[in-house]
Amino acid sequence: MQPTSDSLQLGNYLGALTQWVALQDDNEAIYCVVDLHALTVAPDPAVLRERTRRTAAQYLAAGVDPARSLLFVQSHVPEHAELAWLLSCHTGFGEAGRMTQFKDKSAKQGAEGTTVGLFTYPVLMAADILLYDTNLVPVGEDQRQHLELTRDLAVRLNSRFGAGTVVVPEPHIVRSTAKIYDLQDPTSKMSKSATSPNGLIELLDDPKVIAKRIRSAVTDTEREIRFDVAAKPGISNLLTIFSALTDRPVASLEADYDGKGYGDLKKDLADVVVAWVEPFQQRVFGYLDDPASLDDLLAAGAEKARDIAGGTLDRLYERSGL
Ligand code: ADP
Ligand code: NA
Hints:
Layout: H1 10-22, E1 30-33, H2 35-38, H3 45-61, E2 70-73, H4 79-88, H5 93-97, H6 100-113, H7 116-130, E3 136-138, H8 144-161, E4 170-172, H9 207-215, H10 233-246, H11 250-256, H12 262-288, H13 291-320
Parallel strand pairs: 1-2, 3-4
């Protein structure tokens, strides 16, 4: 999780965060706020520091449990940067150059605007994963190629330095997750990089603003409340959000709203979202209003992470002749 925004949007929460939090029930889960990765977008230092805290607070508020799981900030565990250097000496220049995310971003920024950090970003990500003898990595489509690189590096290290040098991680495909669309442009996915904020539900926004955006969501010229993504993307998106936050099947919502108007659905959904978001925000601001405790919690996480990461790095240094 990159600390690159002040607030997660609802798509991040329903499409990713809730699934990641659920993984801690059956796994030893490790959550890391990757502030070193965020340096690739040249953030303002004070903004980065604040966003690192806000990101951690939102994960905690969503249910990451530091008593059961590891939660820490990447830069607090210097082994990440150390292993990244070692891995970069095993990564082909051409191999790294084939990463489509690098190709896309560097094409937009031009050669002079593109940093070496952006180029080696996937190598740092491989270090994040391999340091913890990770078995499973929950990844979306956009990170699949980076995980493949991590696996190639792991296989290579094991063949150069002996079996068992590192664990080869597997992708963890999360069961079909809710995809949330922009409220104003319901054929595009909700994204914090949207051109207008009006289509976004930002989790830390004023609940009144959130309710207003839902009531102003784009729908269609019919009257029927029915789930049909192709013909009725706006209404379908509202039903998806309603269903995800209430755990009610879409079919039962369709039955409930049979004969009612779009305004009724929007008003009720606004109430549902506000009733959910208010206690979420209270938890987030509870952490943010007590920065010393939050910093202690993150420092304790980093200490535990260093125990594991240090062992892996020692093994790799030893086998590398360092
Ligand atoms: P954003 O588009 O807001 O920048 P990211 O690309 O940082 O979001 O995605 C973070 C995680 O949230 C990813 O796992 C991604 O699949 C998930 N995600 C982002 N937007 C949505 C959405 N609209 N619906 C479902 N999942 C989403
Ligand atoms: Na994005």
